[in-house]
Design goal:
The chain is α/β, with parallel strands linked by helices. Helix 1 crosses helix 4. Helix content is 21%, strand content 30%. It folds into 2 domains: 217 residues, Spore Coat Polysaccharide Biosynthesis Protein SpsA, Chain A (Alpha-Beta Complex); 192 residues, 3 Solenoid (UDP N-Acetylglucosamine Acyltransferase, domain 1), CATH 2.160.10. The chain has a 19-stranded parallel sheet that branches.
Length: 442
């Protein structure tokens, strides 16, 4: 495998996104587009990312620095085209003999495509694709199978526009080619910019080697609008669903299931319709996620049942064979093997042992307005319906809480605690109450 640097162009303002957030930080499947690009570069074997940004894009640079890949920041002082952007990166690096140029807004690019560009021996290797509609893409001009030029649509004549082979944007380049041809780029074109694809013409005319790698339209798809972001999201979700279907995950209605870039799901998991899985989720073998369930930052064991209509928030750990039922919300909850929180409950900042049973309507009162507090419930404890556990509090193993109890003191093992007021009966109260009010109305 060739050692190379990935030059990622991310200086575009993305005005068509109509957002204060830089374009490359908009998310696809829970990860910023730049994160997808950098991850793919790393997977393709890039030893370093040379990230080209505009001077005011501190947030983009900060995000890149949070990722686990060596990054050198290269500032493009003015947006004078892709050639000028690559100049900024090339001038900042004297270590690598091979470079791959790609865009920070192409989240669907695959690592194997970049690796092919990187490993090609040609001085200039272009990425090409054939879309259903060539539209306004730049055209790749061939002599046999050798690229001789890339012509931007605005600069193309009718014959060139009739070509169907289009420029995919990414390129593989030798250090020698960049050193020799970058200074020769001209901005005498319709946009008044320095086009990186003009390197193909310069290299071909100089007798240097040029080559082509074919890609799918998805690989090359750039996102520059909200509509484009939605399209990329749909395509990424299709990829993710297929990945898990192929791995033995069952989905009754795949189109209604939404996954994150980092989702982990074991074989024989069943995802019912309308399941939303955000970042940081892992689901163990044989677990069933029922319809209309929302998961984020959750680890779920084997053979558990979750939902329907459950919301499991970050920090939740669900043990094997546990059951989380309808209209249950959890947050920072460690729920032991075989425990049951069947319906209409909130369990937050809590530790539940094995085989705990939580009755309907139970809540852990974890927040005092300033601090969060822990509720601990021992193995085999039974919490009656409509109970309030006022943290910090510990319920012992095998303890029982009567329904409608509000508990703020620790409960010993195997104890029964009932805190509700004694039941009173006032005979005839209802009849007298109605009579008084009916008299007022007359």
């Amino acid at each position: 495998m060739t050692c190379f640097a990935a030059i990622i162009l991310a200086a575009g303002k993305g005005t068509r996104m109509k957002s204060a957030l830089p374009k490359v930080l908009h998310e696809i499947a829970g990860r910023p587009m730049l994160g997808h690009a950098m991850a793919v570069a790393g997977a393709a074997g890039a030893a370093e990312v040379l990230l080209v940004t505009a001077p005011d894009q501190e947030s983009v640079r900060a995000y890149a620095d949070s990722l686990d890949i060596a990054t050198t920041h290269c500032i493009q002082e003015q947006q004078l085209g892709t050639g000028d952007a690559v100049r900024a990166a090339f001038s900042a690096n004297d270590k690598h003999e091979r470079f791959v140029v790609m865009f920070g807004d192409t989240p669907l690019m695959r690592s194997e495509v970049l690796a092919e560009l990187a490993n090609h021996e040609a001085d200039v290797t272009v990425l090409a694709f054939e879309p259903d509609d060539a539209a306004a893409y730049g055209r790749v001009v061939l002599a046999g199978e050798t690229p001789t030029a890339i012509v931007e649509f605005k600069d193309a004549d009718a014959a060139t526009r009739a070509l169907t082979l289009c420029n995919g944007g990414a390129m593989g380049l030798s250090r020698a080619a960049l050193a020799k041809y970058l200074p020769q780029l001209s901005n005498e074109n319709a946009q008044g910019e320095f086009y990186l694809p003009d390197l193909v013409t310069l290299a071909h005319q100089d007798g240097a080697t040029t080559a082509m790698v074919m890609a799918s339209p998805e690989d090359t798809m750039g996102v520059d609008s909200r509509a484009g972001q939605a399209k990329a999201e749909a395509l990424m979700q299709t990829r993710l669903r297929q990945k898990f279907l192929d791995a033995g995950v069952g989905m009754q209605d795949p189109d209604s299931v939404f996954l994150s870039f980092d989702t982990e799901i074991a074989a024989d998991v069943i995802l019912e319709p309308h399941v939303k899985i955000n970042g940081g989720v892992a689901i163990g073998h044989g677990t069933i996620i029922k319809a209309f369930t929302h998961l984020e930052g959750v680890r779920i064991g084997q053979d558990a049942q979750i939902g329907p209509y459950a919301r499991l928030r970050p920090g939740t750990v669900i043990g094997d064979e546990a059951k989380i039922g309808n209209f249950v919300e959890t947050k920072k909850a460690d729920i032991g093997k075989g425990a049951k929180v069947s319906h209409l409950s909130y369990i937050g900042d809590a530790e539940l042992g094995m085989d705990v049973n939580i009755g309907a309507g139970t809540i852990t009162c974890n927040y005092d307005g300033y601090n969060k507090h822990i509720t601990k419930i021992g193995d085999g404890a039974f919490i009656g319906s409509n109970s309030s556990l006022i943290a910090p509090v510990t319920i012992g193993k095998g303890a029982y809480l009567g329904s409608s109890s509000a508990v703020s003191k620790d409960v010993p093992d195997d104890a029964l605690v009932v805190t509700r007021a004694p039941e009173r009966e006032i005979k005839g109260w209802g009849r007298k109450f109605r009579a008084r009010n009916e008299k007022k109305d007359s």
